[in-house]
Amino acid sequence: MKKILIIEDNTDVRENLEEILELSGYEVKSGKDGKEGVQFAESWKPDLILCDVMLPVIDGFGILQILSKKPELNSIPFIFLTAKTELADMRKGMNLGADDYITKPFQKDELLSVIEMRLERVENFHKDHMTESKLKNIHRSFSLLKGLFDQGEERNYPPNYDFFSKREMSRNALLLKSGIAKEYCSTDFGREFIFRIHTEGLYPGLWEAYSDHPFQTHCRSITDCTALVLPVDAFRDAIREEPHIVYAIQEVVYRQKSNLEEKLLASAFHSVRKKVALILHELHGLGLGTEQQPIDISRADLSAMCGTAKETLTRTLSDFKDEGLLEINGGKITLTDFNGLKDMPD
Q1: Which CATH architecture has domain 3-130?
Q2: pLDDT at 3
Q3: Strand partners, 312
Q4: 76 DSSP assignment
């Protein structure tokens, strides 16, 4: 049984979380302030920590800093619980090494889905023989990579802006602060296949910016986007000064490769319902599909992600709506049954 530590000073929220998690089969312990939370983390060694940002004695950021310095605790998935008004502080939390955040008030299914995803990632690391030392190195390298972009220029881009095109050489390294962009290839007849979606916190064209290779895909904004931009020469100079960052770049490329392989296999072997469900679940993993940030992507782009015709996608989404798996309002999609989508039969 997986162990989850809750650090939350609001009694009602804390007891609600305890009930949801215990009924879902987790062993739960909770602390009412930062000091108690750190003590429980040290003595109990949980598999995952849910932590409020604003806490008495030691706040959530302080807890994360303390735990990140302890080798036996710094690889535990750490998820912030935050009010909407605190979202601006989340960049600080993610830079410190937080794995995710959940906005209060939260939905039960959303909470459980994020927890399951984070626990599953840790298990996959162990399956790949990832040692604690390697996990720590990757964690540190991602923090260093994000830190580079503190020196970047913040730029705003409209929808349908081309960040880069196939066969071009990289001019800038990018970190998306907000918005959605697609990375895709087109056939001679204009049909698109979308390889991946980039959202907040991701790095479009990261490998090409590092390796000085031409792009193999196109990348275009779907919505208004804001990005932190570093000239590619400055980006490479910074990596030469801090070569540890290469670990993060390698991990990003590995994850993209694994995700693309899964997508291509799904396109070849799975039913339409399964393919659409997997793409929706993938978008949820990128923070989309919630009430706060519904999936606002055109049906043409969604069908290009799924490898299906637009009409087929529309019918499938309508079926999923009738089955209670999602809601559609003004074309925007909110996912309501994450487990149902994840476990969709073929």
Answers
A1: 3-Layer(aba) Sandwich (3.40)
A2: 95
A3: none
A4: S
Counting Cα atoms < 13 Å in the Cβ hemisphere of 232 gives 15
Q: Give the three-state DSSP class for 4.
A: strand
- Rounded CA-CA distance 91/102 in Å is 13
Domain range annotation of the chain: 3-130, 152-260, 270-342
pLDDT value of position 84 = 55
DSSP string, 27-81: EEEEESSHHHHHHHHHHH--SEEEEESS-SSS-HHHHHHHHHT-TTTTTS-EEEE
Query: For residues 93 and 61, is the Cβ–Cβ distance under 8 A?
Result: yes
DSSP 157-174: E-TT-EEE-TTPPP-EEE
Q: How many CB atoms lie within 10 A of CB 294?
A: 19
Tokens read off for 133: 């030392």
Confidence of residue 97 (pLDDT cuts 50, 70, 90): low
HSE on the CB side for 104, CA within 13 Å?
19
Question: 274 to each of 108, 225, 264, how far by Cα in Å?
Answer: 23, 30, 13
- 152-260 CATH fold: Jelly Rolls (2.60.120)
Q: If you average pLDDT over residues 74-96, what whole number do you get?
A: 69
CATH topology of domain 270-342: Arc Repressor Mutant, subunit A (1.10.10)
